[in-house]
Amino acid sequence: MLNIFVSALLGAQLVISVPQPFSSIIKCLQDSNVPQDYPGTPEFTQDIIPYNLRLNYTPVAVAIPSTVPQVQAAVKCAAKLGMKVNPKSGGHSYASHSLGGEDGHLVVDLKFFAETTVDSVSQVATVGPGARLGNVALALFDNGERALAHGICPGYEFLFMNGEFY
Q: How far apart are CA 127 and CA 136, in angstroms?
């Protein structure tokens, strides 16, 4: 389990330090040119906001790849160091599995893999792992006026019907 130590509390800004054994994953990701956020970086706190606020876990770092080789490098770093890896798509897991379901995992945020394409001949849709439901529904409509059954989650998704957003 990862223990994050609070080193200082300055107004609304929380400053955290990473225990020494976990600096190796950060170094490996940096050496592999994998964009990342980790405790102490400005974006880390935003990256790890859980969908279920009662299950708040702290990953050791959040890899934010934009290419397949960067995803591969992040997974290789974690494997080399014996660390568990969790993909984060939309992050809407009620049990906070996208943050690991426990402290100390490496999270690989797939937000840059959100493309949805529709093959015009076969009508088969290919959906990236970081795509959100509302974006998928819109892409399907835009590519042949297709639709899929889905619900909405107030504040997170929208409903697109008859050319209007609801």
A: 7
Residues 6+ apart with CB under 8 A from 57: 48, 50, 96, 99, 100, 101, 102, 103, 105
Top-level CATH class of 5-109? alpha beta
- pTM value surpassing 0.90: no
Q: Where are the domains of the chain?
A: 5-109, 116-165
C-alpha span between 146 and 138 (Å, rounded):
9
Query: Could you read off the pLDDT of 81-132 as tens digits, one per residue?
Result: 999 999 998 777 778 888 989 999 999 999 999 999 999 899 899 999 999 8
